[in-house]
Amino acid sequence: MSKDLEHAFVTELENNQNIVHKVCTLYTNDRDAHNDLFQEITIQLWKAYPKFRGDAKFSTWMYRVALNTAITLYRKSKRRVNTQDYESVIFKIKADEYDETEELQLKLMYKAVKQLGDIEKALVFLYLEDKNYTEISETLGISEVNARVKMNRIKKKLKTILNP
Amino acid sequence: MDELDILKKDWQKREIEHPKLSYNDIYKMIWKKSSSIVKWIFIISILEFVLPNLLYLLPSTRERMSIYYTNDSSTFFIVLSGIQYLVIFYFIFQFYKRYKEISVLDDARTLMKNIIKTRRTVKHYVIFSLSMILLTMSLFAASFYFDPNMLTAVYPNEIPEGLTEEKLRTIMAISFIVVALLTTALLALIYFLLYGLLLKKLNRNYHELKKMEI
């Protein structure tokens, strides 16, 4: 039975790992930290998995656990040496798909998002993942109205970062 | 279309350029130990509950404690430690109850609130423990001053030349109070530094969420 559970969990996470990678990318600045956070999220997901089964879609449930881990539970576990400009690696734009101006603009935008606070990042992340305000407010535990208000403020803040 | 919507279009298409993890990579991860702050709070709290009580197991402490039971104030100290244990059990029960309420499946705000509530229980416990240390030591100091048997129990030798018995009692009492104050201050400092560092991020994020709701 527990073998089945392990198998089901690992398969689901393997298929949905992109969500976790995206959270890790937003909240960390180098590859070691990324892997570290990924691991912690995996542990938290696995611990909560028996309670989850059947309730909602696996991916929906992942958002909540992954963000909770990144915002609240995760502590950097070791000192790291920053080896390279990680953002530029992760958010590298494929040259054949974009023209240069757009590429530069996107790059700046990703950089701006990374300058936001933890909670702001969570809102932006859910927004980028096309979650509606009901889902955003339920994930963060704030009212829908306040989620909207905050989102508008974040948009303004991003504009200021981009056009100082 | 604002900036974020341009980003959204790109984000949806994008696969993060991180090496994809294999089934085995993930399988190995689920057996690793968590290093979440909840786990740290749990470990530190258990230590806080256990360590002061372990002190009583040391022979030297026990010997010193036996003084309590050989003088007039003994009943008082026995009652005091009885109450102390009742309160400690109450705190442990509260802590366990709140710890169990912490769930990663809650929304972010509830999760943070429950962690803060659990920590608050431990904080109250620590304040209680430190007050008890201070109180016991002060009572000890007072009994030095007022109870002559106490002095003979701790200091069976002859009183050194140049010192009267009263002077010796005063010195003993004052040094007890100083030691008590220093110990309490040091323990409080360690405790608040530890939790301050551990919960810095959580507190910051919780306040930001709370600020939104005003």
Automatic annotation (TrEMBL), chain A:
Record flagged with keyword ATP-binding? no
The family assignment reads:
Belongs to the sigma-70 factor family. ECF subfamily.
The RNA polymerase sigma factor 70 region 4 type domain extends over: 109-158
GO MF annotation, one: sigma factor activity
NCBIfam families per record? sigma70-ECF
An example GO BP is: DNA-templated transcription initiation
Entry protein name: RNA polymerase sigma-70 factor, ECF subfamily
**Domain of life of the organism encoding this protein:** Bacteria
Question: Which keywords has UniProt assigned to this entry?
Answer: Sigma factor, Transcription, Transcription regulation
Asked whether the keyword Metal-binding is assigned, the reply is: no
**Pfam families for this protein:** Sigma70_r2 (PF04542), Sigma70_r4_2 (PF08281)
Positions of the RNA polymerase sigma-70 region domain = 14-80
Originating organism: Cellulophaga fucicola
From TrEMBL, chain B:
- Keyword Transmembrane helix attached: yes
Q: Which UniProt keywords apply?
A: Membrane, Transmembrane, Transmembrane helix
Q: Give the transmembrane region(s).
A: 37-56, 76-93, 125-146, 171-194
Query: What is the name of the protein in this document?
Result: Uncharacterized protein
